[in-house]
């Protein structure tokens, strides 16, 4: 079992930055590739970014590429999402998730956090 707890969400003005964190309670954090997803009101949840267990491979949705950076600290069992140049359309609940696969597919992520809300005011 892996428990994931996100933090760092909040209210920010357009053009601003936030850093989300996701702490994992597991002794086998390096067994998992990690992903960030988001769900805006009235929309389906979508892939945002992913990172391999060694942090040597990252993947980004086109909508955030160049603005968001995913990283991880395996010594701290934590994955991060640095979000810069935020836009109103980035407003959503953000979720981290863990998978044994390098994938964008939500159904291939076995463990999920409870989410943290990001609101970007224009």
Structure keywords:
122 residues; mainly beta; seven-stranded mixed beta sheet; four-stranded antiparallel beta sheet; 11 strands; 50% strand
Characterize this entry briefly.
This protein is an all-beta fold and 122 residues long. Helices cover 0% and strands 50% of the residues.
Descriptive notes:
A hairpin with a 6-residue loop joins β4 (33-39) and β5. This protein has 122 residues and is an all-beta fold. It contains no helices and 11 strands. The termini are far apart. The chain is globular and about 40 Å long. The strands form 2 sheets. Strands 2, 4, 5, 6, 9, 10 and 11 form a 7-stranded mixed β-sheet that branches. A 4-stranded antiparallel β-sheet has the order 1-3-8-7, with no helix packed on it. The model has no long low-confidence stretch (mean pLDDT 97). The chain has strands spanning 3-7, 10-13, 18-25, 33-39, 46-51, 58-60, 68-73, 78-83, 92-99, 111-112, 116-121.
Secondary structure: elements and pairs:
Blueprint: E1 3-7, E2 10-13, E3 18-25, E4 33-39, E5 46-51, E6 58-60, E7 68-73, E8 78-83, E9 92-99, E10 111-112, E11 116-121
Parallel strand pairs: 2-11
Antiparallel strand pairs: 1-3, 3-8, 4-5, 4-9, 5-6, 7-8, 9-10, 9-11
């Amino acid at each position: 079992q892996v428990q994931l707890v996100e933090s760092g969400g909040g209210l920010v003005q357009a053009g601003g930055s936030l850093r989300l964190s996701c702490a994992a309670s597991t002794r086998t954090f390096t067994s998992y590739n990690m992903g960030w997803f988001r769900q805006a009101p009235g929309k389906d949840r979508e892939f945002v970014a992913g990172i391999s267990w060694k942090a040597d491979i990252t993947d980004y949705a086109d909508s955030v590429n160049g603005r968001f950076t995913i990283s991880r600290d395996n010594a701290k069992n934590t994955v991060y999402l640095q979000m810069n140049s935020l836009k109103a359309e980035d407003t959503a609940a953000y979720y981290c998730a863990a998978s044994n696969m390098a994938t964008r597919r939500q159904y291939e992520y076995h463990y999920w956090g409870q989410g943290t809300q990001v609101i970007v005011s224009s």
